[in-house]
Amino acid sequence: KPAPPKQLPMDWREIVDAACRLCFDQARRQGVEIVRRIDSPEAIILVDPEQVKQVLINLLINAIQAQPGGGEILVQGAIEARELVVSIRDDGQGIAPEQLDHIFDPFFTTRREGTGLGLSISFQLVRNNGGKIWAESRPGQGSCFHVSFPTH
Known about the structure:
The protein is an alpha+beta fold. The protein is about 35% helix and about 30% strand.
C-alpha cells in the first residue's frame, strides 16, 4: 500500500523532466526516442512529487517496453479547464479493447514477465494525489496514457 502523499506545490514541468531523464538511457538502449513537448505554460500542482514521478516513470517504461523494435514516445502537457493533463503516447502495438478495461486492475498483465501491479499502483498513487489517469489505445497504432491534476 502506498504511503500517504506528502503534497507540495510543484511546477509540473520539473516532475516530467526528472522522470524523462531517468528513462532516457533505457529508451536509447532499446532504440526508442523520448520527445518532450513541455513548453506549455507553468502550472503549479499540489502533489507528492516523488509519487507522481514514479507514476510517470512507470508509464514511460511501459511505453519503452511496448516498442521492442524501437520507436518514439511523445510526452506533452496541456492546461485544460484548470487541470494539467500530461500525456505519454507510444508507437507500440496498442492494447486490445477487451483488455483496456482491465489494465488498472491488480495483477492484470499481458506480458509474460509482468506482475500486473505497475498500472494498478500508478492508478492508486494518482488518485491519492487528487488526480485521474486513463488510457486510449488502438491495436496496431500505439497507446496514450493521460494523467491529470487540478492546477493551483
